[in-house]
Give the backbone structure.
Amino acid sequence: MVKVLVLPGSARRDSFNKKLAAVAAKLLTEAGAEVDLVDPADIRMPLFDQDLEDAEGLPAPAKVLKEKFLANDAILFVSPEYNSSITPLMKNMIDWVSRSESDDEPSLAAYRGKVAGLLSASPGALGGLRGLVHLRSILGNIGVTVTPKQFSLTGASSKFTDDGSLKDSGDVKSVKAVVEALVETATKLKG
């Protein structure tokens, strides 16, 4: 069974990306994956600071998140777009998880051999698409295999029901396509 970490890039209580992550987590379970859905609000960490790292090592929340990366075969990033890029929160999580904790730990150990899928949601007309371009580039440069299929939910403020489900079956189908591509690729690579 493939293990998938679902990581939203927003800690906001009513985040559209957290809602989309919950939809994707359900679809991942239906696709046969074991799912670990993270709420970034539960993993608060300082901004990456090498002086802090040198003095104290990885902060405890960063260690928790890094362990989750190491324990899973794939990561589904569900990232909002801020000013045409990824959120500071998402970048900070990526940066802390990338750090080695000892001299004998391989560089980027939490990312090597991982597969990633990309989703975004935004009230805007592009659905966070511009941020996914940057996220794809960052992940590809640190050794992550990013599946080609991705989805950006446009007009997200009107796309969810009161219980957090997606209203439109076409949107569900698009999320499902990303989820299935992620599970399929991770299964093949896990081999």
User: Anything to note?
Assistant: Helices lie at 16-30, 50-56, 60-71, 88-97, 129-141, 169-190.
